[in-house]
């Protein structure tokens, strides 16, 4: 099982309520610079993070006590000295997300790949958490000892 947490979600909700009022005006939300999708596919969870403009060497993944931390740095583009920036809307800097991973996931076998600005993690379900069939034996399969 995968559990998601965003420490600013409650703050965003309260701010929207305060500034939005009953009329629904003034809606405000903090854009997430690292949106994700997560789903289960067979015996693994797949998590995809959108990280356009991030170099693969600027991505760090850490797992500690079932908390997965993804940290990425979007660096400013290389521009010549005589270039004057006209519009700069893309967020730059270091971004991070934390996901709480359930006990049923095998965090020692996480696979990570990065292609076309998307970081994809595959986390297998632990063997002990997979469903298994238990054989039931009847009384006739046990030998009785004569006294």
UniProtKB/TrEMBL annotation:
Record InterPro entries: A-crystallin/Hsp20_dom (IPR002068), HSP20-like_chaperone (IPR008978), Small_HSP (IPR031107)
Q: Where is the SHSP domain?
A: 27-140
Q: Which residues form a coiled coil?
A: none
Lineage, top ranks: Bacteria, Bacillati, Actinomycetota, Actinomycetes, Propionibacteriales
Top-level division of the source organism's lineage: Bacteria
Q: Which family does it belong to?
A: Belongs to the small heat shock protein (HSP20) family.
Gene3D superfamilies this protein is in? 2.60.40.790
Q: What is this protein called?
A: HSP20 family protein
The record's listing under PROSITE patterns reads: SHSP
SUPFAM superfamilies in alphabetical order:
HSP20-like chaperones
């Amino acid at each position: 099982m995968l559990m998601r947490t965003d420490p600013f979600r409650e703050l965003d909700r309260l701010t929207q309520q305060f500034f939005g009022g009953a009329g629904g005006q003034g809606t405000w939300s903090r854009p997430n610079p690292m949106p994700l999708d997560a789903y289960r596919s067979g015996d693994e969870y797949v998590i995809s993070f959108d990280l356009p403009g991030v170099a693969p060497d600027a991505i760090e993944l850490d797992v500690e006590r079932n908390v997965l931390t993804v940290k990425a740095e979007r660096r400013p583009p290389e521009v010549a000295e005589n270039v004057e920036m006209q519009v700069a809307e893309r967020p730059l800097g270091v971004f991070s997300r934390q996901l709480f991973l359930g006990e049923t996931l095998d965090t020692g076998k996480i696979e990570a790949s990065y292609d076309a600005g998307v970081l994809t993690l595959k986390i297998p379900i632990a063997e002990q958490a997979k469903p298994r069939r238990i054989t039931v034996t009847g009384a006739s399969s046990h030998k009785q000892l004569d006294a």
